Amino acid sequence: MSSFKQHILFLCGVAVSILLSIMYSWVLRTLTPSFALNGNKPAVKHTAVSRRTALEFSQKVRVLCWVMTQPKHLKSRTQHIRATWGKRCNIVLYMSSEASDFPTVGLNVSEGRSQLYWKTIRAFQHIHTHHLDHADWFLKADDDTFVVLENLRYGLSKHNTEEPLYFGRRYTPFIAQGYMSGGAGYVLSKEALRRFVKGFADGLCTHNTETEDVGLGKCMETMKVQMGDSRDVLGRQTFHPYPPDYYLPRQTRRPRPWYLLYEHYQPVEGPGCCSDLAISFHYIDAVQMHTLEYYTYHLRPYGYKHRFQPDEHLNNRTNI
Amino acid sequence: MMSESSSFMKGMILGGIFCLVMSFFGTFNSGSHSEGHEHLHHHLKPVSKDELQKLSESQMTDWTLQVRVYCLIMVTPKLLVHWATANDTWSKHCDKSVFYTSESSKALEAMDLQEQDEWARLRKAIKHAYENAGDLRWFFVARPTTFAIIENLKYLVLDKDPSQPFYIGHTEKSGELDYVEYDSGIVLSYESMRRLIEIFKDEEKCPERGHALWKTSEEKQLATCLQYSGVFAENGEDAQGKELFNKKSISTLISDSMGQNPADVVEACCSDMAITFGGMSQSQIQVLMYGVYRLRPYGHDFHDSLTFLPPKDSDND
């Protein structure tokens, strides 16, 4: 045999041997659980059982979220919604004056506080045209609202979307039956959405104000949509028009502060203000958005049996 | 044919020897590196989920009973607002919590140590706690400006034997001394406390009033005394290596994370099982209390191996 051929074979032997060793150690490393490599084992994420419950609920109670935003806010505000609760909606639409790759839906309006009600009208008309059958409930939120979708679904699960219903933080003035605070977010049933759009189509509802939550509230009253009670079984609020530090800190008995003046239900200050299963907080900046995300979905006391067990309270109240 | 295959075989053998030699050198290097690494930083993690699931019911009950915590909260009248907040919030989750003060305050109850010097005060508090521990075997020392999640502290020390010397928290280095940072809370096992009481008697190694012209901080004095007793500081972290003891506020940590990890702010920021945070105002702490013990998404269940019940006569958890 030629010495050249021998050398070639020799080198092939070396190469094959090295290759086999590398493959062997790679296989060993990926199969061996280690602290350094996370592999496929998430450390303290939710168990498979809890995921399934959440998933079932999300298929039975489909929520379309639309977020009232504008081009100037996409980077400072809306991206943080997209990074946190936006993905928990069955469908999320970011409504702006301009379409973009964010992605945002472009409504036929201009920006500005005076245009807010036009935006709301156009947004709901858009949703009615394109998404009526894609969801069961329709939530409006601001780009500085934090929403806990699971708690919204839990509350809505007891209600029939074919009935004309509308839920949120109930305010008293300006309209006989009251209206729901815009910033805290409000949610319309399918029938309520149909009636809102029909109201405008038939001229029963008009653009008669710049204040979108009052305007929508008036149209709801005209179209005989019923106000829901979104408080939990202990009477605690779930939708909040201000951040948690406005409500939770203990206060000595005092006259209502300005931000509680519009309340329909008797407000409570201190720990009784807010349900464990809160649905929304408003005026939430970027840092607070992620902080609330951390509190709601991550930080927890190991093994703690929560004092409030919602399913142990059964009653006949027609509320959330 | 024979000569061909023998060339090939020779090649294989040489390649194999080469790989063996390379891997030997590799482990040798990383081996010595990790050993040196361990001497510098002791890391302490909670027991793994798998280990917990292997335990029997009776073992679980034993562990639940064993892991009870005595909180020593070191206050001064200057910190009255935080003192009141700690009293109203996290301290209710300790099995026993005692506030030790430099001087008494009409507003709140505490053990008055009548001592202005912080190190002397800490020594007195430790002595008192050790003598009044009852059957509690874990001790947590903090200032009221720290917020602690005691359940997560229990989870961290669950499988650790308190008759062994443990000294846990966020560790820092000062020259050759590893110490646990006071501002993020200090965890001591019963054995560590016992050794401290002993070494307190040694005025040379562990003086009550410092001899030096400058004063060393109490956290370093504590570490020195413990070190003389053969007790070393360990850094508390979760299974992923994230810090459990924090002296910064959550908003600072989130803010930092937004700058460093914009794609994954919360994941990168802080542990799900964090034990302490610091630097938070009274209203932030009340919101944190709600955030930890109440606010949650319906339907997310964790099936933890232990159960801790809410404290009696409390409405904010």
From TrEMBL, chain A:
GO molecular function: glycoprotein-N-acetylgalactosamine 3-beta-galactosyltransferase activity; manganese ion binding; nucleotide binding
Transmembrane segments: 7-27
Main location: membrane
All residue ranges annotated as the Fringe-like glycosyltransferase domain in the record: 63-230
Coiled coil: none
Organism superkingdom: Eukaryota
EC number: 2.4.1.122
Pathway(s) it belongs to: Protein modification; protein glycosylation
Family stated for the protein in its record: Belongs to the glycosyltransferase 31 family. Beta3-Gal-T subfamily.
Subunit comment: Homodimer; disulfide-linked.
Protein function: Glycosyltransferase that generates the core 1 O-glycan Gal-beta1-3GalNAc-alpha1-Ser/Thr (T antigen), which is a precursor for many extended O-glycans in glycoproteins.
Protein name: Glycoprotein-N-acetylgalactosamine 3-beta-galactosyltransferase 1
Organism name: Carassius auratus (Goldfish)
Organism ancestry: Eukaryota, Metazoa, Chordata, Craniata, Vertebrata
Record gene name: c1galt1a
Automatic annotation (TrEMBL), chain B:
GO cellular component assignments: membrane
Keyword Oxidoreductase: no
Coarse class of the protein's main subcellular location: membrane
Localization (cell): Membrane
Molecular functions per Gene Ontology: glycoprotein-N-acetylgalactosamine 3-beta-galactosyltransferase activity
Its membrane topology: Single-pass type II membrane protein
Keywords of this entry: Membrane, Signal-anchor, Transmembrane, Transmembrane helix
InterPro entries from the UniProt entry: C1GALT1/C1GALT1_chp1
GO terms for biological process, alphabetical: protein O-linked glycosylation
Stated family: Belongs to the glycosyltransferase 31 family. Beta3-Gal-T subfamily.
PANTHER family per record: BETA1,3-GALACTOSYLTRANSFERASE (PTHR23033), C1GALT1-SPECIFIC CHAPERONE 1 (PTHR23033:SF2)
Protein name: C1GALT1-specific chaperone 1-like
Gene label: LOC113057874
